[in-house]
Amino acid sequence: xxxxxxxxxxxxxxxxxxxxxxxxxxxxxxxxxxxxxxxxxxxxxxxxxxxxxxxxxxxxxxxxxxxxxxxxxxxxxxxxxxxxxxxxxxxxxxxxxxxxxxxxxxxxxxxxxxxxxxxxxxxxxxxxxxxxxxxxxxxxxxxxxxxxxxxxxxxxxxxxxxxxxxxxxxxxxxxxxxxxxxxxxxxxxxxxxxxxxxxxxxxxxxxxxxxxxxxxxxxxxxxxxxxxxxxxxxxxxxxxxxxxxxxxxxxxxxxxxxxxxxxxxxxxxxxxxxxxxxxxxxxxxxxxxxxxxxxxxxxxxxxxxxxxxxxxxxxxxxxxxxxxxxxxxxxxx
Length: 333
Fold this sequence. Notes:
Blueprint: H1 2-48, H2 57-68, H3 77-89, H4 99-105, H5 109-116, H6 129-132, H7 137-146, H8 150-163, H9 167-175, H10 196-204, H11 209-215, H12 225-239, H13 241-248, E1 252-263, E2 266-276, E3 281-291, H14 295-311, E4 320-327
Parallel strand pairs: 3-4
Antiparallel strand pairs: 1-2, 2-3
């Protein structure tokens, strides 16, 4: 029994070390993402608000970015506008002369830090700089959309950082008007991480849609080798799309990979989208490296509903979906 107990203790020690390391890594990536979004937001604000760009520029830039970087997520027209708002709501922090141009030309990490992220506030000691960089962009977006006063925003930034609030917990806190009934905040949570449960809650803060898009991986706690394989498979198909279409049969026209659907406030991406001239309809193809699961059908049906509701032309027939799997139980399917 003592031997089993010792093993359990060893597992706890190693697990906590792993989770703390994962938290530090996620926090570092989150900080760099916020720096990028702030810089991109500034660049868009300066060019779009002063009339240097024409109408529809943000939509065009988003589309071109997607073409230049296939599979890029997080830079839809709506998200680019969120970045602009992020900068404009916090431009009191900005005194960086180079902006996004400095980011593009920075040669070292120090260059990037010096050029882009200089905090400039009336009372810098009172501004939660460390906490500002340790919460996700979705939390930031929620705060600047639902609050206007700088002191109130700083309060909720601290609250998110110390209590490791999820977005739903943050919204509830704002709805309760905790700022107006505030008590003493707890000490910095991450300095007192001493259990696996606390560490998991801390890491959970970084399961942010924007951060996940930025680093181009699935959720930190549920990433699967099959997801990576599917991306490799997709890229191989895209690079050899002519042969792939010929295996489908004639009359298929390739539209694009990672086709962006933006409906009901949700960003979704179809692995491959085709149009079939004979059937006169869009054909969505989802690539699954592993064995068939019934959940794939629900995901695909959601894509087809959005395609028919938002993308289908009046003269076209309802969209069709295909799931390509490596393996399946034929009777079950």
